[in-house]
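Duplicate of earlier report; Claudin-4 input re-posted below.
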Amino acid sequence: MVSIRMQMVGCALAVIGWILVLAMYVTPMWRVTTVTVNGTTQSVWEGTFMRCLRKGGGDRSCRSYDFLVPLSPDFEGPSSVALAAVITCSAGLVIFSFTGRCAKLVFKERTMARFSVLSGVVILIAALLCFIPVCWTVDLIVRDDHAAPVGGTRKVELGACLYIGFVAVVALAAGGGLLCTSWPVNQNVWFWPISLHRTEGRETESHQLR
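Output:
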Protein backbone atom coordinates (compact mmCIF):
# COMPACT_ATOMS: atom_id res chain seq x y z
CA MET A 1 0.00 0.00 0.00
CA VAL A 2 2.81 2.41 0.88
CA SER A 3 4.60 1.72 -2.40
CA ILE A 4 1.40 2.35 -4.39
CA ARG A 5 0.88 5.68 -2.64
CA MET A 6 4.48 6.65 -3.33
CA GLN A 7 3.96 5.74 -6.97
CA MET A 8 0.85 7.88 -7.25
CA VAL A 9 2.51 10.86 -5.57
CA GLY A 10 5.61 10.43 -7.71
CA CYS A 11 3.55 10.19 -10.88
CA ALA A 12 1.53 13.29 -9.94
CA LEU A 13 4.71 15.29 -9.31
CA ALA A 14 6.18 14.06 -12.59
CA VAL A 15 3.08 15.14 -14.52
CA ILE A 16 3.14 18.55 -12.83
CA GLY A 17 6.82 18.89 -13.70
CA TRP A 18 6.14 17.88 -17.31
CA ILE A 19 3.41 20.54 -17.62
CA LEU A 20 5.72 23.18 -16.14
CA VAL A 21 8.61 22.24 -18.45
CA LEU A 22 6.29 22.44 -21.45
CA ALA A 23 4.98 25.84 -20.28
CA MET A 24 8.54 27.06 -19.78
CA TYR A 25 9.50 25.93 -23.27
CA VAL A 26 6.63 27.52 -25.21
CA THR A 27 6.11 30.77 -23.25
CA PRO A 28 8.10 33.76 -24.58
CA MET A 29 9.34 35.04 -21.22
CA TRP A 30 12.86 33.72 -20.83
CA ARG A 31 14.48 37.14 -20.93
CA VAL A 32 12.84 40.53 -20.41
CA THR A 33 14.69 43.58 -21.72
CA THR A 34 13.33 47.00 -20.74
CA VAL A 35 14.42 50.07 -22.69
CA THR A 36 13.50 53.63 -21.71
CA VAL A 37 13.78 56.30 -24.41
CA ASN A 38 12.52 59.88 -23.93
CA GLY A 39 10.35 58.83 -21.01
CA THR A 40 8.75 55.97 -22.96
CA THR A 41 9.32 52.44 -21.72
CA GLN A 42 9.30 49.41 -23.98
CA SER A 43 9.76 45.81 -22.93
CA VAL A 44 11.00 42.98 -25.13
CA TRP A 45 10.07 39.44 -24.09
CA GLU A 46 12.16 36.71 -25.64
CA GLY A 47 11.50 32.99 -25.72
CA THR A 48 12.31 29.93 -27.77
CA PHE A 49 9.52 30.40 -30.34
CA MET A 50 8.76 34.10 -30.54
CA ARG A 51 9.61 37.58 -29.41
CA CYS A 52 7.06 40.04 -28.01
CA LEU A 53 7.24 43.83 -27.81
CA ARG A 54 5.23 45.59 -25.15
CA LYS A 55 4.93 49.36 -25.30
CA GLY A 56 4.32 51.72 -22.42
CA GLY A 57 0.62 51.98 -23.19
CA GLY A 58 0.14 48.26 -22.69
CA ASP A 59 -0.05 47.30 -26.37
CA ARG A 60 1.75 44.07 -27.14
CA SER A 61 2.74 42.51 -30.44
CA CYS A 62 4.38 39.11 -30.87
CA ARG A 63 6.19 37.61 -33.82
CA SER A 64 7.54 34.14 -34.38
CA TYR A 65 11.16 33.71 -35.29
CA ASP A 66 12.02 33.58 -38.99
CA PHE A 67 14.82 34.73 -41.26
CA LEU A 68 13.90 38.37 -40.58
CA VAL A 69 13.60 37.93 -36.80
CA PRO A 70 16.02 35.09 -35.98
CA LEU A 71 16.40 33.35 -32.66
CA SER A 72 19.05 34.94 -30.50
CA PRO A 73 22.29 32.91 -30.42
CA ASP A 74 22.08 33.04 -26.63
CA PHE A 75 18.96 30.84 -26.73
CA GLU A 76 20.00 28.28 -29.33
CA GLY A 77 21.72 26.00 -26.83
CA PRO A 78 19.24 26.37 -23.93
CA SER A 79 16.22 25.88 -26.19
CA SER A 80 17.64 22.62 -27.57
CA VAL A 81 18.32 21.25 -24.09
CA ALA A 82 14.86 22.35 -22.90
CA LEU A 83 13.27 20.48 -25.81
CA ALA A 84 15.28 17.41 -24.84
CA ALA A 85 13.90 17.76 -21.29
CA VAL A 86 10.31 17.80 -22.60
CA ILE A 87 10.92 14.70 -24.74
CA THR A 88 12.74 12.83 -21.95
CA CYS A 89 10.02 13.56 -19.40
CA SER A 90 7.36 12.41 -21.87
CA ALA A 91 9.29 9.17 -22.36
CA GLY A 92 9.47 8.65 -18.60
CA LEU A 93 5.70 9.04 -18.24
CA VAL A 94 5.12 6.61 -21.11
CA ILE A 95 7.37 4.05 -19.40
CA PHE A 96 5.46 4.54 -16.15
CA SER A 97 2.20 3.73 -17.96
CA PHE A 98 3.43 0.12 -18.20
CA THR A 99 2.96 -0.20 -14.42
CA GLY A 100 -0.82 0.38 -14.55
CA ARG A 101 -3.58 -2.11 -13.85
CA CYS A 102 -3.92 -3.10 -17.49
CA ALA A 103 -0.22 -3.95 -17.58
CA LYS A 104 -0.79 -6.65 -14.94
CA LEU A 105 -2.50 -8.72 -17.62
CA VAL A 106 0.69 -8.72 -19.72
CA PHE A 107 3.67 -8.24 -17.40
CA LYS A 108 4.74 -9.88 -14.19
CA GLU A 109 5.05 -7.87 -11.00
CA ARG A 110 8.83 -8.00 -11.15
CA THR A 111 8.81 -6.56 -14.69
CA MET A 112 6.43 -3.79 -13.62
CA ALA A 113 8.81 -2.94 -10.78
CA ARG A 114 11.60 -2.52 -13.29
CA PHE A 115 9.41 -0.22 -15.39
CA SER A 116 8.67 1.89 -12.30
CA VAL A 117 12.34 2.32 -11.42
CA LEU A 118 13.29 2.94 -15.06
CA SER A 119 10.64 5.66 -15.38
CA GLY A 120 11.99 7.30 -12.22
CA VAL A 121 15.52 7.31 -13.60
CA VAL A 122 14.36 8.80 -16.91
CA ILE A 123 12.41 11.54 -15.11
CA LEU A 124 15.46 12.34 -12.98
CA ILE A 125 17.43 12.76 -16.21
CA ALA A 126 14.67 15.09 -17.45
CA ALA A 127 15.05 17.14 -14.26
CA LEU A 128 18.77 17.51 -14.97
CA LEU A 129 18.08 18.47 -18.59
CA CYS A 130 15.62 21.12 -17.36
CA PHE A 131 18.07 22.45 -14.79
CA ILE A 132 20.84 22.99 -17.36
CA PRO A 133 19.08 25.51 -19.68
CA VAL A 134 17.58 27.41 -16.75
CA CYS A 135 20.97 27.94 -15.09
CA TRP A 136 22.57 28.58 -18.48
CA THR A 137 20.08 31.35 -19.29
CA VAL A 138 20.29 32.87 -15.81
CA ASP A 139 24.06 33.09 -16.16
CA LEU A 140 23.76 34.78 -19.57
CA ILE A 141 21.23 37.32 -18.28
CA VAL A 142 23.22 38.14 -15.15
CA ARG A 143 26.40 38.69 -17.14
CA ASP A 144 24.52 40.80 -19.70
CA ASP A 145 22.98 42.91 -16.94
CA HIS A 146 26.34 43.43 -15.22
CA ALA A 147 27.90 44.46 -18.53
CA ALA A 148 25.30 47.20 -19.02
CA PRO A 149 26.42 50.73 -18.03
CA VAL A 150 25.27 51.99 -14.65
CA GLY A 151 22.33 54.37 -14.97
CA GLY A 152 21.72 53.34 -18.57
CA THR A 153 18.39 53.15 -20.34
CA ARG A 154 18.55 49.36 -20.87
CA LYS A 155 17.73 46.81 -18.19
CA VAL A 156 17.80 43.03 -18.54
CA GLU A 157 15.76 40.87 -16.16
CA LEU A 158 14.94 37.21 -15.61
CA GLY A 159 11.73 36.10 -17.26
CA ALA A 160 8.93 34.24 -15.51
CA CYS A 161 9.78 31.07 -17.46
CA LEU A 162 13.03 30.68 -15.56
CA TYR A 163 11.22 30.64 -12.22
CA ILE A 164 8.77 28.12 -13.67
CA GLY A 165 11.78 26.07 -14.73
CA PHE A 166 13.18 25.96 -11.19
CA VAL A 167 9.82 24.74 -9.85
CA ALA A 168 9.70 22.13 -12.63
CA VAL A 169 13.14 20.85 -11.65
CA VAL A 170 12.04 20.37 -8.04
CA ALA A 171 8.83 18.60 -9.08
CA LEU A 172 10.61 16.29 -11.52
CA ALA A 173 13.40 15.47 -9.08
CA ALA A 174 10.94 14.67 -6.30
CA GLY A 175 8.69 12.65 -8.60
CA GLY A 176 11.54 10.70 -10.13
CA GLY A 177 13.04 9.97 -6.73
CA LEU A 178 9.74 8.63 -5.40
CA LEU A 179 9.28 6.41 -8.45
CA CYS A 180 12.78 5.00 -8.02
CA THR A 181 12.11 4.05 -4.39
CA SER A 182 8.41 3.12 -4.59
CA TRP A 183 9.06 -0.62 -5.06
CA PRO A 184 10.69 -2.52 -2.17
CA VAL A 185 13.75 -4.57 -3.03
CA ASN A 186 12.92 -8.13 -1.94
CA GLN A 187 13.12 -11.63 -3.29
CA ASN A 188 9.55 -11.62 -4.63
CA VAL A 189 9.84 -8.45 -6.71
CA TRP A 190 13.42 -7.72 -7.66
CA PHE A 191 16.06 -9.28 -9.86
CA TRP A 192 17.36 -12.36 -8.02
CA PRO A 193 14.38 -14.47 -6.88
CA ILE A 194 15.75 -17.76 -8.26
CA SER A 195 19.12 -17.53 -6.58
CA LEU A 196 17.55 -16.56 -3.26
CA HIS A 197 15.12 -19.46 -3.50
CA ARG A 198 17.96 -21.89 -4.14
CA THR A 199 19.89 -20.50 -1.20
CA GLU A 200 16.92 -21.00 1.11
CA GLY A 201 16.51 -24.58 -0.21
CA ARG A 202 20.13 -25.41 0.53
CA GLU A 203 19.83 -24.03 4.07
CA THR A 204 16.72 -26.16 4.65
CA GLU A 205 18.48 -29.30 3.40
CA SER A 206 21.49 -28.65 5.65
CA HIS A 207 19.22 -28.29 8.70
CA GLN A 208 17.48 -31.57 7.87
CA LEU A 209 20.81 -33.41 7.54
CA ARG A 210 21.86 -32.14 10.95
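Helices lie at 2-26, 73-96, 109-147, 160-181, 193-209.

Merging into the original ticket.
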